[in-house]
Amino acid sequence: MEKCKAFLKRKNIVISGKRYGIDALGAMAQGLFCSLLIGTILNTLGDQLGIAFLVAVGGYASAMSGAAMAVAIGYALQAPPMVLFSLVTVGYAANALGSTTLSGGSGAGGPLAVLFIAVIAAELGKAVSKETKIDILVTPLVTILSGVALSAWWAPAIGTAASAVGDFVKWATVLQPFWMGILVSVVIGIALTLPISSAAICAAIGLTGLAGGAAVAGCCANMVGFAVMSFRENRWGGLISQGLGTSMLQMGNIVKNPRIWLPAILTSAITGPLATCVFHFEMNDPASGVASGMGTCGMVGPIGVYTGWVNDVATGAKAAITGMDWLAMALICFLLPALLTWAFGLFFRRIGWIREGDLTLT
């Protein structure tokens, strides 16, 4: 046992929830953002502006999503170069096979399959790296063969499971838009602020439609909410870094005083059902729902909603983009998160639950 622990330590193989559930998951979301999401945005811009070059670049970027996610995961696991480069093939295979189901239909499990399989392939590659005199053959062979074999064995089942979860959430949201609007908005909003990846979660189960709209509402409630609520402490720098960056910057303050999170959570519990029940606000971006978990980070959430509108119009699912659509976006993504969280925050300040300096970013 001691020899095994020493070997794992020497190989920098750390089996922990943080390494796999936070570091790897967060890196996967960045890889997905830099490929599929950026590709979708470029493709939409190209279509709208009539620029064929942007459409082509968007297609290339989207096609590399599996490889980008796997390499990002390997980077988070501190994989050596030979392992990192070999993960390109693993990611491509896992994403392609995870996007199908056991019955052969299309699934939403590509990103989830990449997460599980790239982690295992990377750790196996790290285990054999530089252990032989023919490392240039052994390391890529072990990484690629194990990863592709696991992809063929597991990925379709992961695709089926992810699709089933995503379909259930979307079905439940349509069936019970009020309660599921609250649940999805609050849970995904919390995930956005926690040091895990809400975007990766949404992408893993393909969270789109009404449920995707509720997820956008929850994310915007946290990002815009914290940005506005903490303006007196953090001024313009804090407004931009949280409103266009991430509300995760407040995690240190949340640990010290969890009650500072209540205004954003309460706001998400209001904007979620408003999105599902009143405005029928949907996220139908072609990027497998990743934008559902991004909120106003780089304006990805609103851009994803717009991309979904364009896609729906192109497929005939939507007649046109209306003024009510734009009003819903303005209210759900910006105005209500700002006003409601500020009002809740003011109330909690007055009763002493939020003290001066509790929201200051360090």
Could you give a quick summary of the protein structure above?
This protein is 75% helix and 0% strand. The chain has 362 residues and is mainly alpha-helical.
Number of strands: 0
Shape estimate: globular
- The helix content is over 70%
Q: Based on the structure, what is the oligomeric state of the protein chains?
A: single chain
Q: What is the distance, rounded to the nearest whole angstrom, between the alpha carbons of the first and last residues? A: 42 Å
Structural class, judged by helices and strands?
A: mainly alpha
Count of domains = 2
Order of helices and strands: HHHHHHHHHHHHHHH
Tally of helical runs: 15
Give average pLDDT, whole number.
91
Low-confidence stretches: none
- What profile does the largest beta sheet have? none
Q: Beta fraction of the residues?
A: under 5%
What is Rg?
A: 21 Å
